[in-house]
Amino acid sequence: MGYDIERFVGYVNEGLLCSICRDVLEDPLQAPCEHAFCTACIHGWLVHHSNCPEDRQMIDVSLLRPLYRYMKNDLNRLQLHCKNRDYGCEMVCSLESIDRHERECEYSQIPCSNAGCTVQIERRNLDGHLAVCEYRSRECPNGCGYTILSAEDAQHNCVAELRTELELLRSEMICRVEEAKHEMESRLDSQRRHMVQKESILQNEIEELKSQMSRMMSDVRSLMAAERQHRQELEQAELEKREL
């Protein structure tokens, strides 16, 4: 939809009106036949039609182009009233700058920033409303440190609130201790399994070394027996030699 033509000061050229909504062009696009439309208007039209609403020539979304520069300049120079005119704003500015003004306009209706409050208030009156809003929050005057809503003043009990928080902290601490305990037990179990596995490997290596040592001792005894036999044979040969 375009800008309401009633908001504009002075004459508005027919060529600057949307061919569909007949209001002043907003975010305009132009067809090859040079008829201009608001972007939202022509996109909505082409959902159900495939031609220009003015001369019925065939058009497609891909054929739409931005407005000619001179027409865009004429459009931007138009003067119009702020949309908050009915609330007291007397600002008249160019179409090019109207959005910037309306974003900051003191007469704009904006929501209260307090959670739970549904009041819409003029920007210029927001501070006054926040000072008395029943959903405003403040720190407890008794020093418990809690932030409370004005509507909850009568129900607020420092001792009860602190007791509740203490219970929550205690529960949280117990949970953390249990988590730390489980984590430590898991680590100990992992280390214990690792040590058992390592002990088993070492025990196997010891048994293998024992087996190797036993074989070596057996070989040594065999060598010593062979050496004695060899010595005896040499002594016998020496005796026989002497006898000869």
TrEMBL record:
Q: What region holds the TRAF-type domain?
A: 101-144
Q: Does the keyword Isomerase apply?
A: no
Domain (RING-type): give its ranges.
18-56
Q: Kindly name one Pfam family recorded for this protein.
A: zf-C3HC4_2
The family database entries (SMART domains) matched by this protein are listed as: RING
Which parts of the chain are coiled coil? Answer: 192-243
Q: Does the keyword Ligase apply?
A: yes
- TRAF-type Zn finger ranges: 101-144
Q: What is this protein called?
A: RNF41 ligase
Q: Which species does this protein come from?
A: Psophia crepitans (common trumpeter)
Identify the gene encoding this protein. Answer: Rnf41_0
